[in-house]
Specification:
The protein contains 19 helices and 15 strands. By secondary structure, it is α/β, with parallel strands linked by helices. It folds into two domains: about 210 residues, Growth Hormone, Chain: A, CATH 1.20.1250; about 260 residues, 3-Layer(aba) Sandwich (Rossmann fold), CATH 3.40.50.150. Helix 11 links the parallel strand 5 and strand 6.
Length: about 575
């Protein structure tokens, strides 16, 4: 008898089931919102603050409206209607979500709140509807007293939210795509509607069937208005980001978080497709003896362009790669011809954790873990720079690949990082790959050697040394130190990276390809020639400090200079040499 009573006490009533599932669905949709919004608006603290705020506001309004109506209208049937309406909205979310995202991204709003319209339109209504469930369930509760009924409902809803948070984070996102996850929550809502309103009449069955058909049709159709240039050969949601591999012609491109990250020529796997990866070789000109660089660490793997090229080009080099996302590692091995060996070791760890735990030292550390609007702040601070310095040999070099502007409001992150690195390294060098105020790759090189090398000395070393690639064009992007007195030194206890990146949101990220064309990070052509960009570079002056920061147009290389390596380029006569900027 006591066992039966205990079992009955654990059995949930229909209103209690509704509250629990509403908690699962609302929290699951909140986490899903971050993944849907990120490719268009980034995943900064401002984006997440907007998501959390909209969900709380929608739930609060739903609680308020549901509470006012509960005494007269609360029934299991009405709660079932709430779940069916939620499922129908989720179907629309799958079908036109991308269209709404693109449409709202053009609203003239400050970048910090740019995601507000999209989050409100996409997730406000279903969250508002789910807010009705708790007050309805409290009204229908068999618990004695308002306090006991309310407390029981709050407890069930919170437990449901906990389940939704863990299930979405640890099960759904690593296993399913965004549309499939949305379909899961839509199907869960329909199942809950059926469970709490059975037996259902013909009219309710018809409505339920229609919503189920709408949900399945939207998932089968896919996002309206969303096209990908090229063939998608692999796509997944990782615990850290969305991941896609696209083939277009002879080029295979890795997209992380909706932005192009790495590319490989399928016919010439060791060719630099994005020009900026050519800059990875510049440290060989800064070393007193390039042959002494034999231990290299890459923080951030992506398509492993740099690590693969180093192993291919330099016979005595051993490369370690610290990549936090296991899906990126498996994708690189399957689709980008990455093979571990005695000379190429891959570690599934975050960069800072790896440096903290390893007892190895390196001649060169390449920091390639920054994205346009997603920068791990723990890899930007003075404490991190100090840790990196401690893992470098006495003449070691730190190379950092940033995405920022070289001048103007969008340059704040670049200038703050330059200032931070300067606190730990005697010399820091800057190489903006495009120049001017556009968002681009900017390469920073920090050395422990206190003697500063000039552009002329680097050009001379480039002529004397064979490092497997002619870097004359890259050297000519050498820039003077930027102004840094108006930006902070980044520290673990205060690293306002999101604020510094805020001016970048919504701006195009210009990527140069080795074919001589420029495109944005999403793959679209900018319709501007490199010659046009070079003219802009020559005009670039920072008015705040009255100093020319342009990439100076250096004379053509001497006739004796011989291009080297598979990526060597011979400047055309009577045309300005154009600096490259991405592989």
């Amino acid at each position: 008898m006591s066992t039966t009573r205990r079992f009955d006490a654990l059995r949930l009533s229909r209103p209690e089931i509704a509250v629990f599932i509403s908690g699962v669905a609302s929290m699951g949709l909140e986490i899903l919102a971050g993944r849907m919004i990120a490719p268009q608006f980034g995943s900064s603290i401002y984006t997440w603050g907007t998501i959390i705020g909209v969900f709380l506001a929608a739930l609060s309004y739903g609680y308020h409206r549901g509470g006012k109506q509960a005494a007269e209208r609360a029934t299991n049937g009405r709660m079932a209607r709430v779940f069916l309406l939620t499922a129908a909205y989720v179907a629309g979310l799958i079908l036109v979500g991308d269209v709404l995202l693109r449409a709202t991204s053009g609203f003239p709003l400050p970048s910090r709140v740019a995601s507000l319209p999209a989050v409100t339109l996409l997730f406000g209504p279903p969250t508002y509807l789910l807010g009705y469930v708790s007050p309805y369930a409290a009204e229908l509760s068999t618990k004695e007293g308002t306090g006991e009924a309310s407390g029981h409902v709050y407890m069930l809803g919170t437990v449901g939210s906990i389940v939704g948070a863990f299930a979405t984070t640890y099960l759904l996102i690593p296993s399913l795509g965004i549309d499939q996850i949305a379909l899961t929550f839509g199907a869960l809502s329909i199942a809950t509607a059926v469970a709490i309103s059975r037996p259902i009449g013909r009219e309710r069955a018809t409505v339920t069937g229609f919503v189920a058909l709408l949900l399945v049709a939207s998932a089968a159709t896919g996002a309206a208005g969303y096209t990908v240039e090229g063939e998608v050969v692999h796509e997944t949601q990782t615990p850290y980001q969305s991941l896609r591999v696209v083939d277009l012609g002879d080029t295979r491109t890795l997209y992380l978080g909706g932005q192009r990250h790495s590319a490989m020529d399928l016919d010439e796997p060791n060719r630099h497709v994005f020009e900026y990866t050519r800059y990875f070789h510049l440290p060989y000109l800064y070393a007193d003896d390039p042959d002494e660089i034999d231990r290299v660490l890459f923080i951030g793997g992506g398509g492993f362009t740099g690590p693969k090229r180093f192993v291919h080009e330099y016979d005595d080099v051993t490369v370690d790669v610290a990549e936090i996302d296991p899906a990126v590692i498996s994708t690189a091995k399957e689709y980008f011809r990455v093979e571990e060996s005695e000379r190429l070791n891959v570690h599934n760890e975050g960069g800072r954790q790896f440096l903290r735990e390893t007892n190895r030292t390196y001649d060169l550390i390449v920091l390639d873990a920054y994205q346009k609007d997603k920068v791990p702040f723990e890899l930007t601070t003075r404490e991190f720079m100090s840790l990196a310095s401690s893992r470098l040999d006495d003449d070691g070099i730190l190379f950092a690949n940033l995405i920022s502007a070289a001048s103007g409001p969008a340059s704040e992150f670049y200038r703050a990082e330059y200032r931070t690195m300067s606190r730990e390294f005697p010399q820091v060098y800057s190489f903006p790959t495009v120049g001017g105020g556009v968002v681009q790759n900017i390469e920073l090189i920090a050395t422990k050697n206190g003697t500063r090398l000039s552009e002329e000395e680097l050009l001379a070393r480039n002529d004397r040394r064979d490092v497997g690639i002619d870097l004359a064009a890259e050297i000519r992007t050498y820039a003077e130190a930027p102004r840094t007195d108006d930006v902070p030194v980044l520290r673990d206890d205060r690293a306002p990276v999101d604020s510094l990146l805020d001016p970048i949101v919504g701006q195009r990220y210009v990527v140069q390809e080795s074919s001589g064309t420029e495109s944005t990070a999403d793959g679209s052509d900018t319709s501007e020639s490199i010659a046009d960009r070079e003219r802009e570079r020559e005009r670039w002056t920072d008015p705040a400090i009255g100093r020319d920061l342009s990439v100076r147009a250096a004379p053509e290389p001497a006739a004796a200079t011989t291009p080297r390596g598979p990526d060597a380029r011979v400047p055309e006569p009577d045309r300005p040499t154009v600096p490259s900027s991405m592989p």
